[in-house]
Every structure is written in structure tokens, then in C-alpha cells.
Specification:
This protein has 13 helices and 23 strands. It is α+β, with helices and mostly antiparallel strands. The structure holds glycyl-adenosine-5'-phosphate.
């Protein structure tokens, strides 16, 4: 089972502290979201898993953390100033603004039951290009219209990696193929943000640029497509809710030779199967475009330099073949927020007990669960039991995220932990004082096992790393 729709996750997130509407006490700010105590843990678990898998478990990838605000020239030469546009139309009737290529996915502001543009009354303006980069000005004395002070919030983390290619290469003494991984915020002034955290103006990306020789790029590209499907599966997302989409020639970004998207079934409630899917991530073969355009030396067909502003040449010298060239790059790019949404939707389950009550169980993998263990005293008015429960919590905490909770009856406490995805509850009862053992309850089977307190940490660690 998975969530029937995104709204179910919006409500669970608010109720339990995963994600809150941003600026809520001032009426909110359209499509901005804050991550609460559980959401930040889940997002951190996703980022840790990605970083461990790429940077620690492999031998060919380095990490990087580049600036959100870069020299404006980065965005001039990357092509973003010229081409990072969406076609925008206004509706003269409902006064809403839409992305021309997404009209089928959004509702008309005046008639919410119809798609924008469908209604006979909708009168759309001609499409205009709208640049998605957020503008800002640098310095205390600059004015908003001073072009020399203009800067952008990065719309992707990738460019920070390309402009540091020589720095990383020289300091890490890498040879091709190798990759550089980065996690960080990106900003896009989306025309139609929406669907909860699926499309927002501020979001977080996990991008890896894998540099290689041109002739190796197609094979490596396929390996990363396969590898990322496995990694997403390792987060607990079922393969039945994932599918690949090969971008057609008219959809490819200006820099890409081939791009394959991994789609997730974010909209299972839609009747039309084709419309149930949307992009979780993209894996692109960006060719040597980026290193070339940021380099000082490349020349166009007339022999003129195309980048007179860069001070460096981002080419690679292969000592084995004595060749100098611009490496190709394979780019798997995935959003933290869209991954979090897919992980939560896929983990969502409902279970009805013998009394006919339906409970929500978030079947997150132990690795993803924000809280791994909840220690619950069965008699909170008995000081020895409370003391023992608190001691057990303290002992487990350095190795696994553990909470202590005595704010309700045991049924209510179990239900709360099930709903937030805690895989194990440990109950401390009167008998624990005699036999030095506790009851461990499994979230998914609701089975209970008696475990000695001295073996508890090892017992839980073994289950949590599985
Ligand atoms: N460097 C390539 C790049 O940025 P992209 O497909 O535009 O490619 C990569 O973005 C990923 O970032 C997307 O697959 C998605 O997961 C996430 N993403 C992009 N725009 C987003 C937005 N407005 N809100 C949330 N996530 C977004």
C-alpha cells in the first residue's frame, strides 16, 4: 500500500511534525514549507544515505560545498541568463498566471473544476519568456537597478561543481573517471509552484557530476541510471511506483545529449495512468558543454574565443595518452524534497485492528525512520520504572535516535509511534525491575519479544542496520 494522494501526506506531516506551511502565522507564503522535528530528521537521513553511498562507499567521488551566490558570469556562460526560461501566459478572465507547457496540470482560478485554458471563458495572453532565476543585489549601497550589483541565487548546484573542476582535480589528484558530489539549496522563481513540496521556489538538490572520457559516457550513463534506481529502492520506495522516461529531442536541455528521468507515482488518484507520474530525478549526459563554456580558451568555428572572462582552462590532461581534452559529464540530479515525498508516500499504510479502528503506519525503513526507538514506561507513576526507562533511553541514544515518552496510555503511545514510522517500541514494566528485561514491539508485525536489557542495544542495532 502507499498513500492514496499527496493530501494524505500533507495532513500527516502537519499533524505529526514533518512539514509545516511556512510563515503560517502571517498567512503563509505560497508554496513554501518548513521542515519540523521529524521532517528534518528524515531529510537528513536521505542526505546521509546519498552521501554515504556516493562519497564514502565508492573510491571515485569527492564532496564539495560551493556558494549559493556566485559571480554573475557563471550564469552568463552556463547559459542560464539566456535560456533558463519558462513560457508564461496570463488569463485575462481569472487573472492567474500559468506555465504554457503545464496548462493541463493546473486549475483555472475562476473555475477550479476545469484545467486552465480548457474553459471557453479562459482568455489567455500570448506566451512570454520568464527567467526563473531569483535576482538579488550585492552590497549595502547598491541600488536595485545597478547592473554591476546584480547577482542570482543559484538555480542548480551543478555549476558550483563545474567552476571548481580544476580546484578539485588538482587538490585530489584524481584521474578520469571521477565524480564530485554536492548537496545544497537551489532557488527558482517557478511560475506555478505547487503540489506540496513537489515544486517549490526554494528546494534542496543532491547533484553529482561524474567526469569521464567521451567514449565512456554512454555506458557510464546507463550504469548511473541503473544505480540510482537501486539506491531509490534502498530507501524503501517500491519499484512498482517508479518508471523511466527517456526525454525526446525537443525536451532535452540545451546542454544534454541524452537525459533519462526517473518518475515516481506522485498522483495515484488520477484516472489517466499517464498523469499519475512525475519527475523524481533526471540523469543527463551533459557532454563536455559545461567545462568548455567556463574555460578561457575554447574557440568557435571562426577562431574567436567564446569566453573572454574566465581565467582558467578546465580541460584535462591524460598522462597515459598525452591527450588534452574536455571531459564529458554524467549528471544524476535529484531533489531532497521530492525524495522525501516519495519515501513518505510509499511508506504510508493503513491497518485496521480487531476493534475496527484504522491506524496509520508509516512503514519507513529503519534507516529512514526519524526515530529508531521509543522507550515507553508502562506505569509512569512508579518512579523506579520511570528511572529505568530513562536510563535505557540514555544508553541507547548515542548509537540510535531514541525518545522517551510517557504522555499517554500505551495504546495511544504505540499508535503515535506507528504513525511517525518508529520501527521499535521498548516498554518497561513492573517485571523489568525483577528480570532486567523489556518488551520490544515491532511496528510492522505488532509482535512483541522479551529482550534482556544488557542485550538490548546489540539486538536493536542488528535490526536497524538491516
Ligand atoms: N543540474 C540539473 C538540474 O538542476 P533539474 O531536472 O532541473 O536538473 C534536478 O533538477 C532535480 O531537482 C529534479 O529532478 C527535482 O527532483 C529537483 N527540483 C527541480 N526543481 C524543483 C522545484 N522547483 N521544487 C522541488 N524540487 C525541484
Amino acid at each position: 500500500m502507499s498513500a492514496p494522494n499527496i493530501e494524505t501526506i500533507v495532513s500527516l506531516s502537519k499533524r505529526r511534525g514533518f512539514v509545516f506551511p511556512a510563515s503560517e502565522i502571517y498567512g503563509g507564503l505560497g508554496s513554501s514549507w518548513d521542515y519540523g522535528p521529524l521532517g528534518v530528521e528524515l531529510a537528513n537521513n536521505i542526505k546521509k544515505s546519498w552521501w554515504n553511498w556516493l562519497v564514502y562507499e565508492r573510491d571515485d567521488i569527492e564532496g564539495l560545498d560551493s556558494s549559493i551566490i556566485q559571480n554573475r558570469l557563471v550564469w552568463k556562460y552556463s547559459g542560464h541568463e539566456q535560456t533558463f526560461h519558462d513560457p508564461l501566459v496570463d488569463c485575462r478572465t481569472c487573472k492567474e498566471r500559468f506555465r504554457l507547457d503545464k496548462l493541463q496540470d493546473v486549475q483555472c482560478g475562476k473555475h477550479p473544476s476545469v484545467h486552465a485554458g480548457d474553459d471557453k471563458e479562459c482568455s489567455l495572453t500570448e506566451a512570454r519568456e520568464f527567467n526563473l532565476m531569483f535576482r538579488t543585489t550585492l552590497g549595502a549601497i547598491s541600488s536595485d537597478d545597478d547592473p554591476s550589483a546584480l547577482a542570482y541565487l543559484r538555480p542548480e548546484t551543478a555549476q558550483g561543481i563545474f567552476i571548481n573542476f580544476a580546484n578539485v582535480l588538482n587538490t585530489s589528484r584524481r584521474k578520469l573517471p571521477f565524480g564530485v558530489a554536492q548537496i545544497g539549496k537551489a532557488f527558482r522563481n517557478e511560475v506555478t509552484p505547487g503540489n506540496f513540496i513537489f515544486r517549490t521556489r526554494e528546494f534542496e538538490q543532491m547533484e553529482m557530476e561524474y567526469f569521464c572520457r567521451a567514449e565512456d559516457a554512454p555506458k557510464l550513463h546507463q550504469e548511473w541510471i541503473d544505480g540510482f534506481q537501486d539506491w531509490i529502492g534502498s530507501l524503501g520506495v517500491s519499484t512498482a511506483n517508479l518508471k523511466l522516461y527517456e526525454q525526446g529531442p525537443d525536451e532535452l536541455a540545451h546542454y544534454a545529449q541524452r537525459t533519462v528521468d526517473i518518475l515516481y507515482r506522485y498522483f495515484p488518484e488520477r484516472e489517466d495512468e499517464d498523469k499519475q507520474w512525475d519527475e523524481l530525478m533526471g540523469i543527463a549526459n551533459r557532454t563536455d558543454y559545461d567545462l568548455r563554456v567556463h574555460s578561457k580558451k575554447p574557440e568557435d568555428a571562426e577562431g574567436k574565443r567564446i569566453n573572454p572572462d574566465s581565467t582558467d582552462d578546465l580541460s584535462y590532461f591524460d598522462t597515459a595518452t598525452n591527450e588534452r581534452f574536455y571531459p564529458y559529464v554524467i549528471e544524476p540530479a535529484i531533489g531532497v524534497n521530492r525524495t522525501l515525498l516519495a519515501v513518505m508516500m510509499d511508506a504510508y499504510t493503513e491497518r485496521t485492528n480487531e476493534k475496527g479502528e484504522t491506524r496509520v503506519i508509516l512503514k519507513l525503513t529503519p534507516g529512514m525512520a526519524p526515530i529508531k526507538v521509543a522507550v515507553l514506561p508502562l506505569a509512569k507513576n512508579k518512579p523506579e520504572i520511570v528511572e529505568l526507562a530513562r536510563k535505557i533511553k540514555k544508553n541507547l541514544q548515542p548509537s540510535m535516535r531514541t525518545v522517551y515518552d510517557d504522555t499517554g496510555g500505551i495504546g495511544k503511545l504505540y499508535a503515535r509511534q506507528d504513525e511517525i514510522g518508529t520501527p521499535f517500541c521498548v516498554t518497561v514494566d513492573h517485571e523489568s525491575l525483577e528480570d532486567n528485561a523489556v518488551t520490544v514491539r515491532d511496528r510492522d508485525t505488532w509482535e512483541q519479544e522479551r529482550v534482556g536489557i544488557s542485550q538490548l542495544s546489540e539486538y536493536l542495532s542488528n535490526k536497524i542496520t538491516k
